[in-house]
Amino acid sequence: MPPRIRRPYLRTPQALPSPSHRCQCICKTRARQFSSTPKHATRVRDEMFRWLNGPGFVFRHPLPGSTNYLNAYDRYGRLVRAKNRLVGKNEKEKAEDEEKIDENADEEVNEDGEIVPKKPQKIKEAGIKETKNEPALPRETMEDLMPFPLNRQFRSQHVLSEELKDAIYERVMAEGQSVRTVSAALGVEMSRVGAVVRLKALEKEMEKQGKPIAFSYAKAVLGMLPSTPYVPYAPVTHESINDLPVHRATETQIFHPVSESRHFTRRDAGKVFDRELKPAEERVPHTELVQLEKWRHEGKIEVERIRLQREMEAKDVQSKKALERKRKEREAREMRKVDTERSEFRFQDIRVESVGRSGRSKEGVGARYGIPHQDRKKGQIKIPMRVA
Amino acid sequence: MVLKIRLARFGKRNAPFYNIVVAQARTARNSKPLEVLGTYDPIPKPAPQGEGKPFKDIKMDTARAKYWLGVGAQPSEPMWRLLSMIGLMEPKYSIQKMQQAEAEQRAARKEEAADASEGR
């Protein structure tokens, strides 16, 4: 296989041609030239039109289900990742290109602006995969996901497809699965699952209120980004879900000599950093996955593992309920609520002694005496430095 | 001198925030009190999730408040209202009280009217 030569694209025109430029090919044949453009720019324009009618022609009807970045095509306008699939004969390729164009035309006719962005594309992609005898188009490589040819460090990251978002919302809200379970099942981070559920709920609320939703915008943006599809029985992992968060205590380097005879594990290493620091397997977001792997190593059969996992989940739910009950009880004990016509008065019982012997302790309740406010002073940081 | 349970205004312009204090009656409002019993935030906070009424937060050491009332401290009018909410004082202007009084008056008037008609 010849090496990919992608640099020539850097010479492609940066700006769109203006209407006057577009008719340049025709104007050339005329006797009088109205354009006062200097001579050297004509060559550039020639190059531009050569590109537009040559390798750039494929972008006139972008490939559905693909990001269609410049870098995904070689200098002859052929899709690099489809090269292996094709025999490599130009005529055949051209024929296929025409086919693709036809498909696109169909798509344009069929679509109206109100369709949820990803669906038509996905259907198309599936159609291509099923109907053609040739192997399906391979997934985009990292090399293909470079939207800006000059910035070789920037690669587009996959986003959740609309079906996947719907599936997440369905599982959490309709089926009542926990965020943790859905996250582990679909390979999407827990915080992202939470965000999807909240945003979907918002979208449905807006739909109910009859507010306009920017479907065309979403379709356009999502069309330019690679997305993770939703495959119900074989979910595609969207991202790494069990990353160990960096703890502040572990940011320093510590040289800690240990005698060879000592049994020194990860747990002990954690304690060297901080006495309260838990071992890594308890700090990762999905501790239950670690446990599952441990059972597998112990040689437990699948039925047994499932049973144990169910038990663990039930226990988790129980403890959460107990905590919630305790919190409510404590609140009821310490808080007295008195309803009035307009508002509710919440009386919280406190201890006067909390101000300390000097009466100036920070833990004490109320504005302190003899301690001026610093908030008008120069150089005070007013943005919150931590989240409570 | 008379001891008062009263409010001392702290906070900023348009954002009042009060300390509930025990102080000598004749001292200045924000002078150092005998004791800070708690705080009162008079600006109602919106109800969580938009359900129910907005709420006002009051933090108070009820045991100390009881003690100071026991030794003769006199609550100011706003403090009387707050203390009566948690049953430390007899309500001064209770709506129920007023309604009851009205009902009694009405009943008395009716009786009078009945007596007058019987007398005829």
From TrEMBL, chain A:
Q: Where is the composition biased (Acidic residues)?
A: 98-112
Q: Name one GO biological process term.
A: mitochondrial translation
Task: Specify where the region named Disordered lies, as residue ranges.
Answer: 1-21, 88-112, 319-388
Show the coiled coil region(s). none
Q: What is this protein called?
A: Eukaryotic mitochondrial regulator protein-domain-containing protein
A single GO CC term for this protein reads:
mitochondrial small ribosomal subunit
Highest taxon of source:
Eukaryota
Automatic annotation (TrEMBL), chain B:
> Does the keyword Plastid belong to this entry?
no
Say yes or no: keyword Ribosomal protein present.
yes
Which GO terms fall under biological process for this protein?
mitochondrial translation
Any Pfam family: Ribosomal_S16
Family to which this protein belongs: Belongs to the bacterial ribosomal protein bS16 family.
Which parts of this chain are annotated as the region Disordered? 100-120
Which Gene Ontology molecular function entries are recorded, alphabetically?
A: structural constituent of ribosome
Specify the species.
Answer: Letharia lupina
> What spans are recorded as compositionally biased (Basic and acidic residues)?
103-120
What InterPro entries does its record include?
A: Ribosomal_bS16 (IPR000307), Ribosomal_bS16_CS (IPR020592), Ribosomal_bS16_dom_sf (IPR023803)
| Superkingdom, natural source | Eukaryota
HAMAP family, A to Z: Ribosomal_bS16
- Which keywords describe this protein according to UniProt? Ribonucleoprotein, Ribosomal protein
Q: Name one GO cellular component term.
A: mitochondrial small ribosomal subunit
Please identify the protein, giving its name as recorded. Ribosomal protein S16
